[in-house]
Amino acid sequence: MAQAIRPLIETQYANQVQAFERSPWFQRLEQGQASPQEYDAFVFNLCQTHLKSPQILAFLYAVAPPEAAPQIKHNLLEELGLDEAAICHPDLLYLLATAAGFDRDRQTNLAEAAQAQIRQLCTDPLLFGTMQELGLSVLLEVTCFEWMLSRLASRIGKALAAHRGLPPESLTWFHHHSEVDIRHAEEGLDSVEQYLAYYEIEAEDLETILDITFRENIFIKRYFADLPALAETAL
Amino acid sequence: MKIVDATLFALQIPFVEAFAHSVRSRSSSDSIVVRLQADDGTVGYGEAVARPYVTGETVASCLEFMERALWPAVQATDYAPWAGQDAIAWLGSLALPSDGDNSTTGVVAWNAARCGFELALVDCLLKSAGVSLGELLPPRHPVTYSGVITASSVEGAVKHAKRFKQFGLPHMKVKITGEADRERLAAIRAAVGPEMSLRVDGNGAYSVEDAIATCEALAEFHIDSAEQMIPRGDPQELATVQGATAIPQMADESLITRADAEALIEAKACRGFNLRLSKCGGLGPTLAIAELAQAAGIQMQVGCQVGETAILSAAGRHLAAYLPEISFCEGSYGSLLLREDLSRRPIHFGHQGLAKPLKGPGLGVEIQDDLLEKYAQQVISLSAKAV
Ligand SMILES: [Fe+2]
Ligand SMILES: [Fe+2]
């Protein structure tokens, strides 16, 4: 099973990352063609996406098979700054937001927007029939983000420094995720395999859940949700 | 009660990426939302989806008819709130014309436009009285929605079918065009297994002979209904198709007006009607057609408009939950299809396509005005042009 499944998932991840990297919005950010509003919208969306990582990891910890649980628990503690490194990741995101000039109101907005996504996850009618399928879908998305960040986080950080003038200390989140997540991304794939084996999920169902989870580009959807209109006029 | 203010929003809400390429000829919703305000300040929302190839209405002509014919009629009427009377009678009393001068326009009926104003009036008048549409049309059962597969490639169609199966939907409708129909249905049937109810929709792409041959060829895949195989026209032709095949034929584009319904029944043209609010002119006319269908033993499907927002979805939900027996129901795709839907709470169905009846006042959905502004291509404010 292992030989067939890992490449299948990695191909999906690679496609997602490639589509993101080649999207006009990413290119505009990286090449310094985006407007200040676009950079700020991107920072807002990125913070919104990742502020609730501890909550999402706690959910994954709850549904994790015994083999994967210690790893996910470690990621959760690390995210909260309760491990040896003692760096709370949501705090790093607020550092970024502050550097981007977000005032108190904007930061409150940000916290509310992140919380709203959790609320939506809970109130949306559930399309999957069981928690195991929802858990797999969330695990695949989280792992895919780690996979992407391990490849692009430092480039994004550099772009924000060069074109939005953000100081290095505000970009620690990117630095941290580009290095840390090389390990996380591989471990994430192990967790997926353990999850599939534990819940005895068939390859065909995995394929469909991959297709459902990645039916849109998750990075473009989360990071650039409000940008298309802005970007299109300038393209 | 008087309606003092009307605003028309011609929207364009993009579809989520995955559907943008597979819903033929369209990558965004083009609904018209009608917002009415009563003299007591209550606001109601209705929705019209203009389809030139169905009723003949376009977005532009629909807006024009709303402004020219519907708004003056609504403005001139003093509305009595619903006081427990028969739903069809009350809906009929709303005084909304749908039959302007059509001799030169090629419009069968201004049903989408009428639907937009009717739903907005219903929402507004019921909200003002603190009443849910569910009190007028008491729900008899939860609603089970079908998946609709519009993908053009067979591979894409199979992908969509597998998604719907994963979501536990028990019914699927497959759009067919005369190209690779057998291959398409064979692949979908193989992917979803024998339990799934499958039906097809030809959107009038076939001749009488081809329709009969296609039904013959698809019979082995256990098709529960074949919708609008031949173009709208003489009901006798549809009767010929129905007479030659065991697959129940369903009228969609052939069924726009009450007169259409009567002629189809008279000719024994089909065994099913697809009732769509925007196509049939709103709740009143649709319920009237449903009465005819029930009396004639015709099965009913509650259909939808691809790209409809939560407003039409909510009205469709009420209709589907109220009708004593429906064979299938479509719609309520909400944010599964639209990048953002208009309602504050999600309208889309859950696992197994199930959705509960709506209970809030009026149509039972809270519409977010900021999204109307965000996605409006055109906003027409009618209050200033009072007569
Ligand atoms: Fe983190
Ligand atoms: Fe149809």
Summary of the model, kept short:
With 235 residues, chain A is an all-alpha fold.
Largest sheet of chain A: none
Shape of chain A: globular
Alpha-beta classification of chain A: mainly alpha
Number of strands of chain B: 16
- Could you give me the name of the CATH homologous superfamily of the largest domain in chain B? Enolase-like C-terminal domain
- SS strand fraction of chain A: under 5%
* Spatial arrangement of strands, main beta sheet of chain B: 7-8-9-10-11-12-13-14
Number of helices of chain B: 14
Tally of domains of chain B: 2
Number of strands of chain A: 0
Helix fraction of chain B by DSSP (H/I, runs of at least 4): 25-40%
Explain what this protein looks like in three dimensions.
The complex is a heterodimer of chains A (235) and B (387). Chain A is an all-alpha fold. Helix content of chain A is 77%, strand content 0%. Chain A is built from 12 helices and no strands. In chain A, helix 8 (131-164) packs antiparallel against helix 9. The longest helix of chain A has 34 residues, at 131-164. In chain A, 34% of the residues are buried. Chain B is globular, with a radius of gyration of 20 Å. In chain B, 54% of the residues are buried. By secondary structure, chain B is of the alpha/beta class. Chain B has an 8-stranded parallel sheet. Chain B has a 4-stranded antiparallel sheet with strand order 5-4-1-16. A two-stranded antiparallel ribbon of chain B has the order 2-3. In chain B, helix 2 (59-75) packs across helix 4, helix 6 runs parallel beside helix 7 and helix 10 packs parallel to helix 12. The interface between A and B is medium-sized, with 21 and 21 residues. One fe (ii) ion is lined by residues 201, 203, 227-228, 252, 274 of chain B.
